[in-house]
Amino acid sequence: MPDHNLTAEVAAAESSAVPKPAKYPEHLDYKDMETLARFMNSQGNIQGRKRTNFNTQRQKALKLAIKRARHMAFLPFVG
Amino acid sequence: MSPQLYEGMFLLDNDVVRAGWNAAKHHITDLVAKHGGKVVTARRWSERKLAYPVRGRRRGTYLLMYYELPRTGIPPFIRDLDLSESLLRYLLVRCDALPEGEAGLAALEAAPDWSAPVPPNDEAGIYAVVQNGIVEAPPDRMVEVEAAPDHDSAAAPATPAGRE
Q1: Which chain A residues contact residue B149 at CB under 8 A?
Q2: Is residue A17 part of a domain?
Q3: Is B141 close to A27, i.e. CB distance below 8 A?
Q4: Helices assigned H by DSSP within chain B
Q5: Within a domain: residue B114?
Q6: pLDDT tens digits for B16-39?
Q7: Which residue, of B21, B26, B45, B156, is most buried by count of CB atoms within 10 Å of its CB?
Q8: Which of A34, A55, A75 is facing B137, going by the closest CB pair?
Q9: A18 occurs within a structural domain
Q10: What was the pLDDT predicted at B149?
Q11: Do B133 and A18 touch, CB atoms closer than 8 A?
Q12: Can you give the CATH number for the domain in which A59 is found?
């Protein structure tokens, strides 16, 4: 039978060992070009979820914001 | 039911802006009034180099407007925007509330001594993400995330009953 207290301690130690991700805005706005550009590579592609470490909702919000910014010529489609 | 609040970003032709900013601005705001809406705030957001040429223009002036419009007024409003020759691009998004500080920024433009700067030549400057120092995120919108949660496993349902 597993020791639940020990498992909780190990889980807490592992979670505290995880480095905090970089700061990012709570709300992704298409007008905030500087923040959006951080999630694009040098060719203008939107970075994937593995790289941004975003969940589904936030990645969708990022995609929408970048596409809106591209439409308004804030950000380039390519390069 | 009160009309929905919308945020509109309009990219205006710099030739029209050079002829007079107020005329270019009122051209858009009058369209809202024409279709039964009400302009909450409207201000010159920025003049910047475009990321790519739009209708042969390499620079443009952006108008940021918050307005209320009944649902029936949206299709004719969009049709008028499409027919407008002074407008290069527009983006209309639904908005829950007026952003904090927006009313104050719009009020600055209403001051009698305020005048819009004359847009430079189309070839002036180079494109960069940061221009005019206006695109920096306000510090109150930055939050620190404690740890990257495993959303996929959290969102996944538990083991279905009767599988084990």
Answers
A1: 55
A2: no
A3: yes
A4: 14-19, 21-34, 74-83, 102-109, 151-155
A5: yes
A6: 999 999 999 999 999 999 999 999
A7: B21
A8: A34
A9: no
A10: 47
A11: no
A12: 4.10.640.10
Task: For residue A34, give its domain range.
Answer: 24-79
Residues in chain B, total? 164
Asked if B122 and B57 count as a contact pair (C-beta separation under 8 A), the reply is yes
CATH number, domain at B121?
A: 3.30.70.60
User: How close is the nearest chain B Cα to the Cα of A32, in Å?
Assistant: 5
Q: How many domains does chain B have?
A: 1
CA distance A2 to chain B (A): 20
Domain carrying residue B90:
4-138
pLDDT of res. B162: 42
Q: ipTM > 0.85? A: no
pLDDT band at B82 (very low <50, low <70, confident <90, very high): very high
Helix (H, G, I), strand (E, B) or coil at B44: strand
Look at residue B152 and tell me if it is in a domain: no
Residue A19 in any domain: the answer is no
pLDDT higher than threshold 90 for residue A50: yes
The answer to whether residue A70 sits within a structural domain is: yes
Tell me what the mean pLDDT of segment A61-70 comes to: 96
User: How far apart (Å, rounded) are the C-alpha atoms in residues B22 and B121?
Assistant: 20
Asked whether residue B24 is domain-assigned, the answer is: yes
Average of per-residue pLDDT across A2-7: 59
Number of domains chain A contains: 1
Measured in degrees and rounded to the nearest 5, phi and psi for residue B133 equal 65, 35
Flag if B148 and A73 touch (Cβ within 8 Å). Answer: no
Shortest CB distance from A23 goes to which of B9, B144, B149? B144
Note the pLDDT tens digit of each residue in A22-47. 556 678 999 999 889 999 999 999 99
Q: Decide if B78 touches A, using CB distance below 8 A.
A: no
Q: Which of B60, B129, B143 sits opposite A37 (nearest CB)?
A: B129
Whether residue B164 lies inside any domain: the answer is: no
Provide the token pair at B75. 């299709």
Asked if residue B45 lies in contact with residue B9, where contact means CB atoms within 8 angstroms, the answer is yes
Res B123 pLDDT > 60: yes
